[in-house]
Amino acid sequence: MFQDGSMPGSVNVLEAGAGQARGEHARMSSIIGALAIADVVKTSLGPKGMDKILQPGPGSTNQMEVTNDGATILKSILVDNPAAKLLIDISKTQDEEVGDGTTSVCVLAGELLRQAEKLMEQQLHPQLIVAGYRRAADVARKALEGMALDHSADKEAFRNDLERIAQTTLSSKVLSQDKEMFSKMAVDAVLKLKGSTHVEQIQLIKKAGGTLKDSYLDEGFLLDKKIGVACPKRMENAKILLANTPMDTDKVKIYGTKVKTDSMAKVADIEAAERAKMNAKVDRILAHGCNVFINRQLVYNLPEQRLSDAGVMVIEHADFDGIAQLAHVTRADIVSTFDTPDMVKLGEVDLIEEVMIGEDKLIRFSGVPNAEACSIVLRGANHHILDEAERSLHDALCVLSQTVVNTKVLPGGGATEMEMAQAIDAAALDVPGKQALAMEAFARGLRAMPEIIATNGGHDAADLVAKLRVKHNAGGTNFGMDMDKGELGDMYELGIMESFKVKLHVLMSAAEAAEMLLRVDNVVQCAPRQRQ
Fold first, then answer.
1. Where in the sequence numbering do the catalytic residues fall?
2. Smallest Cα–Cα separation from 199: which of 380, 375, 73?
């Protein structure tokens, strides 16, 4: 056999430089690539998971990161194996859809493939394994739905559930030491959204200095900019005009253009014309009746002085994100031209003022029309801690916003995985043929999850998982592992709870990814493009 997989005397239809792997070789290369990615993040799983340092390569503009967030770790890994890329993609999808479970989905898919590999060594056909996995996933889904609780009818109990879910999500992050404070903060912020999943309305502002305990939730909207020179620093009953327009002196903005004059008087005429044009623009802005002007671009000295003389507060260079968020918060239009004042909707705010956070000045908008908006100010020792705190809190906010919509909750600590595995084992007894072996392998893959969590916590995994299996067999559906004490406990009593939607997404995504890779029997690699 040649290196490209062809046999002597066979016809090779691929162009020079292309290659392919067939049959068992293709399948094993896919499984090995996926397992390698799963093993990278395996030690980050659970409340006692370890962090990873992501160091950029030479010449890279990225900064070093310290994190145990699965999606962040996998996004930074450049891989060539197609199966490894598939696992990275499902982790990204998990992060975008529900915000948490990025490590779990990768590790579970890896464990399912590990069990499938053992079955294939016993000459079980991949299609039989896929059919068994599909049956097992259906059984696991029904078991999940059967053990879920819904307290949405009781506001107090539901808020308590949300706080516990936030604490469970944060317990594996850098915020675990102050998870009670941050969970209350996250729940308050999400409940202000009133059922919306647009968490971008919750602004996260990072300011180095102090400790994580100094972080707080601000009811208003904070903009990390400064008010213009000689402008009012406080404005009550503000009428805000949001703009995206050049406010420098209107020079000829065609690159390479030259203006030749034969006297300085003509240069002065050009400058006077530019000033007159800018003054006319300022007059059109003032005609809108605003007392606050916020521009995405720079505001030069002449228009700033004119506006401040008219008692207008000027905020410049608010960048696109700041302008877009302000438009959403204040219900204002973003304008680029000022010829139709009667058609422009101004934003209205009760109070705009400068506030100090640490050693920096920020602008606070209080009494905004959109009551769903708020800001969370994160404090910390350095930018590495702040970046990881932002990722952690964003995960919690995403999970909570999804839970407010899909209100079912589940016990954590490996209880759901063990219960699903028990249900699959029971269902496999009624399945004749080799599919039952695949279902049992799926159950073993699920049981590997609490085993990995216990191992990462430094406990005797085999002993804990065996005890947990006995407990679930005796009807202790809500029992899971307490990683602080290294023993079993009732997860609802301990307050270790997870979102139903996150768990279901992890299960289905991992099962589908494993099925897809098991179906592969041929990997065709295109020839590299030749440089001309």
1. 69, 102-103, 395
2. 375
